[in-house]
């Protein structure tokens, strides 16, 4: 069958829209391949948002919410088979298979290109092709990181406007610098034949999320959801950026950043690497329960770490919005997120609708509404067996709507990092907080981080897996090289200024199955201990796995927690570490010869301290 004989090929006229020759050529090339009805250059304006969201309402993709409850806000409902990242279909197509490492799917780049080229051929028929210039981080950064996403989804355009700095200003800056940009091509993979009616959430059963690290390009096909489709986020700012960072001497990490000010007025910046749906956004919006401490948000999902002129580690949040897990985000657990969301200008995906035109999800309010329309569009009552909102339903909200946003968020070259938390979702074994013995021991804590899987990725939930630095699905190259790169960067850093490292676990259980630690705002107590450790003030006791709070060192003033629950949350239990050691050894064995020697000796040291052979 001849692909284009029956249809005139669109002349995208790239050069008429930009003086950036490479961009103009790429846009023309993509239009030739994907054959959209028209090409539209996204300017990022409010008028454009108003127009696009109205078109999405007319198409049935978005539902406008009651403006008295959520002004300028919308709900979207995805295809039930397109609700999360698809790790099985995510590929790192480096030239050599070894460079993708054992944690990634790999296919030979030319083979993958051929496959994708045939899928993208005509994939935008009957649709508009949107060109979104964007920058991750600040346009005025020393080395701004540009990208251009081409997509056939207006929902993606609207979401990208919240999540990244996009539009004409960015394009002009790219032109002025004749800057390199990451070409990020996205199609929902649902071309429309002449006269064919569209569906509310077009997508394809076949999905491919593909990265070509050497040419720094992204091709995403078949999904319209989250990290699969908003390509500035996981695809660029983590997978491609991690490769850039390896080559350029910095780190791209899956971390929140929080600014904490002590009662004495001293400010600290704490980053936290927790796997997907394991508490980053919540900690980033922390409401401290202890008096005198102030918390401010810098970032909730992605952190870029560079070395400053004095060898200090500096962190920036490259994003401009929150794409937060809705369930569990509530007025009692995370009032700061709720306040930000309530200002409007948000897109909610796969949440439930209330009868008065608002949204609801499990955990939003203590009181459960008597009637809802669930995320699948069915009537829902408290007796219903299924949750009203999908477990991976999300709110997408501009970051500057957070009242507690730190003004340092706007610093193009970031702030100094003082502490790193590595955290997992573990029912057993990992105590509430453990300070590493030193930097190298802290990197070991990160390299062996483990967590139960969540609904943020398609597949089984609740299975413990190793997730190094919470980056397992996001490392764009060989995982052993990645851990080596942590070593390399820290060797270049000023040893006096290296952040202190802590392992945390908010999710340990009591015998009856409940959470031992109340979490959320109460996590400020753990942060206080960590900061006081940096200041040399808080007491700790040494265990084989590191330093844990001495009795009485954790500030529990005003907290209603039984001694048993406190023990369950905080205890180091040598018997639990027998299985843990075996599991760490199994994990390290997978790296083969790419595991840094420093980690092998950390493991040997741990075994010795645990008295294991
Ligand atoms: P991604 O956006 O997927 O990367 O997730 P995240 O790491 O930002 O996780 P988030 O803060 O959205 O939390 C995910 C889930 O964990 C939500 O349902 C929260 O309510 C829950 N959660 C967060 N912090 C805590 C805590 O301290 N204790 C308990 N028990 N649950 C928590
Ligand atoms: C995650 O899964 O870590 C997320 C959501 O932050 S997504 O943007 O879909 O990757
Ligand atoms: Mn995330």
UniProtKB/TrEMBL annotation:
Domain of life per record: Bacteria
Broad enzyme group: lyase
GO biological process, one term: glycerol biosynthetic process from pyruvate
Compartment(s) where it occurs, according to its Swiss-Prot or TrEMBL record: Cytoplasm
GO MF: GTP binding; kinase activity; manganese ion binding; phosphoenolpyruvate carboxykinase (GTP) activity
Cofactor names: Mn(2+)
Cofactor note: Binds 1 Mn(2+) ion per subunit.
Major localisation: cytoplasm
KW Manganese (keyword) present: yes
Pfam families: PEPCK_GTP, PEPCK_N
GO CC entries: cytosol
Catalytic reactions on record: oxaloacetate + GTP = phosphoenolpyruvate + GDP + CO2
Domain Phosphoenolpyruvate carboxykinase C-terminal P-loop: 250-609
E.C. designation(s): 4.1.1.32
CDD domains: PEPCK_GTP
Residue ranges annotated for the Phosphoenolpyruvate carboxykinase GTP-utilising N-terminal domain, each copy included: 26-246
Coiled-coil blocks: none
Binding positions for Mn(2+) per the UniProt entry: 234, 254, 301
InterPro entries: PEP_carboxykinase_C (IPR013035), PEP_carboxykinase_GTP (IPR008209), PEP_carboxykinase_GTP_C (IPR035077), PEP_carboxykinase_GTP_N (IPR035078), PEP_carboxykinase_N (IPR008210)
Subunit architecture: Monomer.
HAMAP family associated with the record: PEPCK_GTP
Alphabetized PANTHER family for the sequence: PHOSPHOENOLPYRUVATE CARBOXYKINASE, PHOSPHOENOLPYRUVATE CARBOXYKINASE [GTP]-RELATED
Protein family membership: Belongs to the phosphoenolpyruvate carboxykinase [GTP] family.
Function of the molecule: Catalyzes the conversion of oxaloacetate (OAA) to phosphoenolpyruvate (PEP), the rate-limiting step in the metabolic pathway that produces glucose from lactate and other precursors derived from the citric acid cycle.
Protein name: Phosphoenolpyruvate carboxykinase [GTP]
